[in-house]
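tl;dr need the bound structure. longer version: we got a ligand (zinc ion) that a collaborator sent over and nobodys looked at where it sits. i said id run it. heres the input, straight from their email, havent touched it
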Amino acid sequence: MKKSLGVVLAVAWGMTLSSPAAADLRVFACEPEWAALARDVGGEKIKAFSATHKMQDPHHIRARPSLIAQIRRADLVFCSGADLEVGWLPLLMQRGARSGVQPTTTGYLMAADHVPVLEKPTVLDRSLGDLHPGGNPHVHLDPRNLAILANELSRRLIQIDPPNTDYYRKRLEVFQREWQSAMDSWQSRVTKLAGLPVIVHHKSYTYLINWIGLKEVTTLEVKPGIPPTASHLSGLLQTARSEKVKAILRTPYDPADASRWLSSKTGVVALTLPYTVDKNAPPGALANLFDRTITLLEQVHAGP
Ligand SMILES: [Zn+2]
């Protein structure tokens, strides 16, 4: 019997689907930036899922059943670490993550374990509600850290998926070349921003501020995770003036009221900076994130 076109196509399609070449390796990223880096470095050989989106505070996520279902299928878990996900990742892991992605294995990649962590406390005191007991976990906003993580991620992908070693090596080489060239151009733009005094809502931008050399005068939060109080904010009125603060920075998920209040009292611009990329961002999104962020800061520097 002659095969119909539909049968022929179905067979061809089935062969494509069963081919080991395409997206066999599943990356469970806690935040969109790590999913984006995985797509940049892993290309078509991986499928990256982000547990959170850019409007969510990664400190406070609910360990939903849909996330448990995703982490069960993961070949690699890629998160910020340094306790950013301490309230939810361990719960997800306990509910059935494979042995190959458990802590200390190749499939468990915590960014903060591979880069210099800033603001490590000398005295540990969780009783005060500090959300950063392991130091500042928001490590992705220094582009040099992303270059380090790209290398580490590529090394892990090769260990987990040796048949695609050449692919991952080439892909990393291209990524690093393009990233270095982007960093060179950003570096030439941010030089003039050095010393620009800013106030931040939460210490979300510490690595960006450190990389550029901005001056972080203070935070609207009383301390990381402790919301602004009226007395704390009124104390900042004088600071904002005396330090000649140029912007009050917050992420898209921080509450706006405190920065709006301080802005209305002082005339200092309240600015929402991007914090991360879209959940399903295509390759190249991380470079766009830094481009947009620097453009917004350049506008602050130029003044009204
Ligand atoms: Zn934080």
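gonna send this back to them w/ a short note. The two ends are 77 Å apart (CA to CA).
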